[in-house]
Design brief:
Its cofactor is pyridoxal 5'-phosphate. With 427 residues, the chain is an alpha/beta fold. Helices cover 37% and strands 14% of the residues. It has 17 helices and 14 strands. It binds pyridoxal-5'-phosphate.
C-alpha cells in the first residue's frame, strides 16, 4: 500500500465507507434497527462492560451513523466522532461530558441565537454558568478566566454576522489554562476552516446546515481532536475518575485519544438519549458527498451577492469577511482562504420596517430560520431568531434592527441577485 492520502474531495465521498459486508451494497445502507443480536452471553457481557466495541442498541450506536462518524472525524482531522440528534444536542453532550454543577465556561458573544439561549438560560438548570466574552480581542478570554472555568466555546465563522474568529491566540489561551477549546465549525465546514490546526480540541457541528446541505434533516456531530490531556489534573471527572456505571472503569485512561468521544457516547448519549435516526445519518452522508462542490458554489455566489449589495442605494452596510476592506478580511484570508462561507448580514437604510418589508417581497429566497441549504434563504433576525434576546444582546450578536441575514444558495447567481433587486426596489 502506498502512503498516498486522498484529497479532501475524495474523502468526502469515501472516508469511513466500504461496500456493505453483508450484501455488497455500494452505498451505505440505512440500518433501520433498534437492536443487535449478541453472538453469545460472553460477547454481550464484554459489550456492556466496554471491553469490546460492537453494536448493542441504536440509542448508543448504529452502523449507518458509524460511517457518518468516521467520515466527519476524517474530514476534520480528529480521532473519533459522535453523531447525535441535532447541533444543540451535540453542544449539550459536550458540556455534559466536561462540566459538573457549579462549573463555568467562556463563550464568545457572537454565536447562533439558539446557542445564546441554550448556554445563557437552559444550562442554568444544570448548574453550568456561561461567561460571555467579546471575541474580537482574543485576550478578552484570558482576562475573563476565573476559578471554575473549564472550557472555551467559539464559532469559527460566527452566525449571523459572517465574523471570522481568531482561533490561534484563543487556542493558546485555552492551552495556558489547560481547558479545551470547543469550536462550532457549522458555518465554515472542514472544507473552509480547519479548527484542529488552530488549537481546537473539540469540534461541534449542526449537520442540519451545510454538511447535510439540503435542508431536509436535523443532526449534530461531535469530533474529538484527540489532542487534550484529560488526566493532567482532576478538572474533568467524567474522564479522570472511576465510573460507577461501568464498574469503576476509568474512561480517560482506558480510551486515550478517543476518550472524549467515548465518554460523550457511553455516558451522555446513553443516559440523555438524543440519538440520530439512521435515516437522517444517511441523508447527511449523501449531502457530505457533494460538500466541496457545493461550498465552492455557495461561497462564489455569496461573494458576488455581497459585492452587489455593497453598491446598492438602499443598503447601509454589508458585513462579509470575503469583501476586501471588511473588518474580518485579514482573518478570513488566514483561516478560511478558500472563502468566507455563504452566510452574511447586511443593513438596510430603512431599519426594522425595511427588514420586515424585504423578507415579504422576495420570491426566490425562502423566508425561514435555517442556513446552509442549496436554496437561498433570508431572515430578519430582530423579528425572528434573535427576538428573545434583549436589544443589547441583539446588538452584541450582530443582529440589530436593520440587519438582514442571507444564506446564499447554489442557484444561478443572476437569479439570486435579480430577486434581491426586485425586493429592494419594491420597498
Ligand atoms: C443551527 C446551528 C446550531 C444548532 O443546530 P441544530 O441542528 O439546529 O440543533 C448550532 N450552531 C450553529 C452555528 C448553527 O447554525
Amino acid at each position: 500500500m502506498s502512503e498516498h492520502k486522498p484529497a479532501f474531495e475524495t474523502r468526502t465521498i469515501h472516508a469511513g465507507a466500504a461496500p456493505d459486508p453483508a450484501t455488497n451494497a455500494r452505498v451505505t445502507p440505512i440500518y433501520q434497527t433498534a437492536s443487535y443480536v449478541f453472538d453469545d452471553v460472553d460477547h454481550a457481557a464484554s459489550l456492556f462492560g466496554l471491553q469490546a466495541f460492537g453494536n448493542i442498541y441504536t440509542r448508543i450506536m448504529n452502523p449507518t451513523n458509524a460511517v457518518l462518524e468516521s467520515r466527519i472525524a476524517d474530514l476534520e482531522g480528529g480521532t473519533a466522532a459522535l453523531a447525535v440528534a441535532s447541533g444543540h444536542a451535540a453542544q449539550f453532550l459536550v458540556f455534559h461530558t466536561l462540566l459538573s454543577p457549579g462549573d463555568k465556561f467562556l463563550a464568545s458573544k457572537k454565536l447562533y441565537g439558539g446557542s445564546i439561549n441554550q448556554f445563557g438560560n437552559s444550562f442554568k438548570s444544570f448548574g453550568w454558568e456561561v461567561i460571555w466574552v467579546d471575541s474580537d480581542d482574543p485576550q478578552n478570554f484570558d482576562r475573563a478566566f476565573v476559578p471554575g472555568v473549564k472550557a472555551i466555546f467559539v464559532e469559527s465563522i460566527a452566525n449571523p454576522g459572517g465574523v471570522v474568529t481568531d482561533l490561534d491566540p484563543i487556542g493558546a489561551i485555552a492551552k495556558k489554562h489547560h481547558v479545551p477549546l470547543i469550536v462550532d465549525n457549522t458555518l465554515a465546514t472542514p472544507y473552509l476552516v480547519r479548527p484542529f490546526e488552530h488549537g481546537a480540541n473539540i469540534v461541534v457541528h449542526s449537520a442540519t446546515k451545510f454538511l447535510g446541505g439540503h435542508g431536509n434533516s436535523i443532526g449534530g456531530l461531535i469530533v474529538d481532536g484527540g489532542n487534550f490531556d484529560w488526566l493532567a489534573d482532576d478538572k474533568f471527572t467524567q474522564l479522570s475518575k472511576p465510573n460507577p456505571s461501568y464498574a469503576g472503569l476509568e474512561l480517560g485512561k482506558t480510551f486515550g485519544n478517543i476518550s472524549f468521544a467515548i465518554a460523550a457516547r457511553v455516558l451522555g448519549l446513553r443516559d440523555l438519549g438524543p440519538s440520530l435516526a439512521p435515516f437522517n445519518a444517511f441523508l447527511i452522508l449523501t449531502g457530505i458527498e457533494t460538500l466541496a462542490l457545493r461550498i465552492e458554489r455557495h461561497t462564489a455566489n455569496a461573494l458576488a451577492v455581497a459585492r452587489h449589495l455593497q453598491g446598492h442605494a438602499k443598503v447601509a452596510w454589508v458585513s462579509y469577511a470575503g469583501l476586501e476592506g471588511d473588518k474580518y478580511h485579514g482573518l478570513q484570508q488566514k483561516y478560511a482562504p478558500k472563502g468566507a462561507g455563504a452566510v452574511f448580514t447586511f443593513g438596510l437604510k430603512g431599519g426594522y420596517d425595511a427588514g420586515v418589508g424585504l423578507v415579504k417581497n422576495v420570491k426566490l429566497f425562502s423566508h425561514l430560520a435555517n442556513i446552509g441549504d442549496v436554496r437561498s434563504l433570508i431572515i430578519h433576525p430582530a423579528s425572528t431568531t434573535h427576538k428573545q434576546l434583549t436589544p443589547a444582546q441583539r446588538a452584541a450578536a450582530g443582529a440589530g434592527d436593520d440587519v438582514v441575514r442571507l444564506s446564499v444558495g447554489i442557484e444561478n447567481v443572476v437569479d439570486i441577485i435579480a430577486d434581491l433587486d426586485q425586493a429592494l426596489a419594491a420597498l
